[in-house]
Every structure is written in structure tokens, then in C-alpha cells.
Specification:
Elements: H1 5-15, H2 23-29, H3 33-43, H4 48-58, H5 65-71, H6 73-79, H7 86-103, H8 112-116, H9 123-133, H10 144-153, H11 161-171, H12 177-190
Helix pairs in contact: 1-12, 2-3, 3-4, 3-9, 5-7, 10-12
Bound molecules: iron/sulfur cluster.
Iron/sulfur cluster binds near residues 152, 198, 204, 210 and 213.
């Protein structure tokens, strides 16, 4: 099968410059791995605009685990109140910071296993921290957009983001792994939307099989 990876990545790389940048990418550009981890924990199932607003405010005085511990759990809850599931997230972030201080000398760990052992850290967060926080090769963070779009394109048929991660690692050339999340999240938020994708203006229309697309614009 010809996946047209070169053509698709060339087109989308150019296109996404006009789209909104996902919030985690913004923090990865700051090269601050602790901010990447915290913004990612806050962003799960929350709109990017809300996460961006909360993290902008929070990170004015927060650069290390001790800063979160100093704020304390009740005040942290208040500070992130506009974020979905803020109570659970505040608890996870507080506990993550405690562990980082006690076990990792206040640094963000650099292995997959250690990261996955932190409260609230799943594969997506682990992959984002490894790729955009520590700048390690070999990681592809998969969120809902990264899972949905390749399935629509007809690259494969998978049921979960975990399956998509495995399939992508089998077929996608390594040179595209690092960019994949940035490009596909921005593309999914702007054009290939979850319910009604904008196929009529899609720059990669001719490469897409539109699998499972019932309604489009
Ligand atoms: S043609 Fe439609 S479904 Fe396919 S990638 Fe473009 S917007 Fe998404």
C-alpha cells in the first residue's frame, strides 16, 4: 500500500503553520520539561484555550516541584478550578511533585517506566514528556486526533490509541515520528474535526479514504 507519507507530511507541515499550536507544543518550545509534564497533566480532556490560560497564570510562579508543594493542595485546586476534573488533576500533580522531590531529586525522570509510575501519567503524557520535554527519539504521543485521522485516511483500522501507537511505529518512517503529534493535533483541531470534518477544504483530500466519515463540510 502506498501511504503517501512524504506528500502528506510535506503538505500538512506547511499548512499547520496557519493553525493554532497545541498547548503542549507551546511549552515544549520553552524547553522546560517540568512545564511540559504539568501542562500535559492539566490538558487531558480539557480545551487548549482553557489549559493555556491556566498554565500561563500558574507558571508565572511555578518552575519546579517545590513551587507546587509550597502552594499546597487546597490552593492548587483553586488555581486550576476552570480545568476539567480539576480535583483529581490537582491531587495527581501534587503527588507527582512530592515523588519528584523525594525520589528524583526534583527532576523529571528520563525513562518510560519511571514516568508511567507517576500518578496520572499514561502513555500519551509519557510519550509527550519523552519526545517534547527530553527530546528523545522513538516516541509518538497519541491523542484522540492522532488516533482518529490515520484511521480515516485508511492507513489501518485500530480501536484504541495504544493500538494506533503500535501500528504507526510499524509503518511510519522514523523521520516523521517527532512531528506527527504536533501536525496531526493541529490538523484535527482545525480541519479534520471529530464530528464533521472540513473535507471540502482539506489539503490532503486526494490521499484520504474518509473511512467512517458520515458527515462532512
Ligand atoms: S478528507 Fe476529510 S476525513 Fe480525510 S483527512 Fe481531510 S478532512 Fe479528514
Amino acid at each position: 500500500m502506498n501511504y503517501h507519507f512524504d506528500e502528506i507530511f510535506k503538505i500538512l507541515k506547511k499548512e499547520v503553520k496557519n493553525y493554532n499550536v497545541p498547548v503542549v507544543t507551546l511549552y515544549s518550545q520553552n524547553k522546560h520539561v517540568f512545564h511540559v509534564l504539568i501542562s500535559c497533566l492539566l490538558s487531558l480532556r480539557t480545551r487548549d484555550e482553557i489549559t493555556a490560560k491556566v498554565t500561563r497564570e500558574l507558571f508565572k510562579n511555578v518552575n519546579k516541584p517545590e513551587d507546587i508543594l509550597r502552594i499546597g493542595l487546597p490552593r492548587l485546586r483553586k488555581k486550576i478550578k476552570s480545568i476539567n476534573f480539576y480535583k483529581t488533576k490537582a491531587k495527581n500533580i501534587y503527588n507527582v511533585c512530592k515523588i519528584l522531590k523525594e525520589k528524583y531529586n526534583s527532576q523529571v525522570p528520563k525513562t518510560e517506566e519511571e514516568l508511567l509510575g507517576l500518578p496520572g501519567v499514561g502513555r500519551k503524557t509519557m510519550n509527550i514528556v519523552m519526545a517534547y520535554g527530553h527530546y528523545k527519539d522513538g516516541f509518538i504521543p497519541i491523542d484522540v486526533h492522532c488516533h482518529r485521522i490515520p484511521n480515516r485516511l485508511g492507513w489501518f483500522k485500530t480501536k484504541t490509541p495504544e493500538e494506533t501507537e503500535i501500528k504507526l511505529k510499524e509503518i511510519l518512517p522514523k523521520k516523521y515520528w517527532w512531528d506527527f503529534n504536533n501536525i496531526f493535533v493541529a490538523f484535527g483541531q482545525s480541519v479534520c474535526n471529530p464530528v464533521s470534518p472540513k473535507c471540502s477544504i482539506c489539503p490532503i483530500f486526494k490521499y484520504c479514504e474518509r473511512i467512517g466519515v458520515k458527515r462532512n463540510r
